[in-house]
């Protein structure tokens, strides 16, 4: 326990050593963050205001909130470190950051699983959609996603910070994550973390299989649609979802199972960007901004703001 209290802060890794490149990194990350912030806030606001979108877009609303929180946990801190010449993060700050990263990323994979099932029901069983995917069912699925992410956050943060840190305090990552913290730990036994990873990967594989089966049935049904235009529309909606999901899941799995002894700092940074930065930025575009109902709601909001200043349209009440 004495060794554990020796370290009161950690040092996060910068992408570049040169000051000019750090400024470019800060600007690049700031632009990415602003795009993710505006996109996710816009989707969350539109769905919250338009009562017609509350049930069909409930999962998208939760996804936007998750992505907004997820990217806000890591990117602003990295920007501040690049601009301040100070890459330190307190011990408690690192604990909180790790907990939140696992919470939001874990919740997202479960929510994406629920969304794939929602899409399957909408396309393969349209007549039963309102019964199967009722508001109560959507609420329960979303609640389970948040709860599962919270459980994993507690498990990972507890097992990781039960390790003693008595040597190097440099984390080879731009945020606190499990592999980088395990690497700098002075403990040679990581059984609790391996058990937590095994349990998490087991559920993660189950989610991936469920998503694959759901989209498999969805694509099979889409191929039976007689009109080429309808098939193309369905594929253009579903395929980007799968691509972003594959990038998110694959990069996260590789980052966590790659042996620490063979760790390359540049590779680690790139992998972490693919699962911590890219999905929250692209999800609003892929899942929501290309959606016809979202566009309609956005036009209503703009029309109300600029032309109907007297009262809000009924669809927004």
Tell me what you see in this structure.
The protein has a single domain (9-316), classed as Rhodopsin 7-helix transmembrane proteins (Rhopdopsin 7-helix transmembrane proteins, Up-down Bundle). The model is unreliable at 1-5 (pLDDT under 50). It is built from eleven helices and three strands, in the order βααβαααβαααααα. The protein has helices spanning 19-49, 58-84, 91-124, 129-132, 135-160, 178-184, 191-222, 228-257, 265-276, 278-289, 292-306; strands at 9-12, 88-90, 170-171. With 317 residues, the chain is an all-alpha fold. Helices cover 73% and strands 3% of the residues. The chain has a three-stranded mixed β-sheet.
Properties at a glance:
disordered N terminus; 317 residues; globular; Rhopdopsin 7-helix transmembrane proteins; mainly alpha; three-stranded mixed beta sheet; single chain
Described by its quaternary structure, the protein is single chain
**Which structural class best describes the helix and strand composition?**
mainly alpha
Mean pLDDT: 81
Outline the biggest β-sheet.
3 strands, mixed
> What is the CATH-assigned architecture?
Up-down Bundle
Strand order of the largest sheet: 2-1-3
CATH class category: Mainly Alpha
**Percent of residues in β-strands:** under 5%
**Unreliable parts:** 1-5
How many domains? The number is 1
What is the CA-CA span between the terminal residues? Answer: 56 Å
Count the DSSP helices.
11
| Outline type | globular
The CATH homologous superfamily corresponds to Rhodopsin 7-helix transmembrane proteins
Radius of gyration: 21 Å
